[in-house]
Design goal:
The chain is of the alpha+beta class. It contains 1 helix and 2 strands, in the order βαβ.
């Protein structure tokens, strides 16, 4: 798995889910300010979301077994 770093995302209430990761809080804050200045976001609230933890499903290990040839007469 790639190394994971803390990041922030900006979500404007009433908008689709955020997709851009910002690797500093300051970057996220500047983006929030930029988005709030857009006409369609007038009177909306910007949230700066901080990644605090993550979950992952790890697949179990592959188990290898030896097969044996079928003996004559076995079904």
């Amino acid at each position: 798995m790639n190394e994971l770093y803390k990041f922030w995302m900006v979500w404007i209430e009433g908008s689709p889910a955020p997709v851009k990761k910002h690797f500093t809080y300051d970057e996220a804050r500047l983006e929030a300010e930029r988005l709030l200045k857009l006409h369609e976001n007038r009177w909306r609230i910007a949230f700066i979301l901080e990644a605090t933890s993550f979950g992952v499903i790890e697949t179990p290990p592959v188990i290898w077994r030896t097969v044996v040839p079928k003996l004559q007469g076995e079904k």
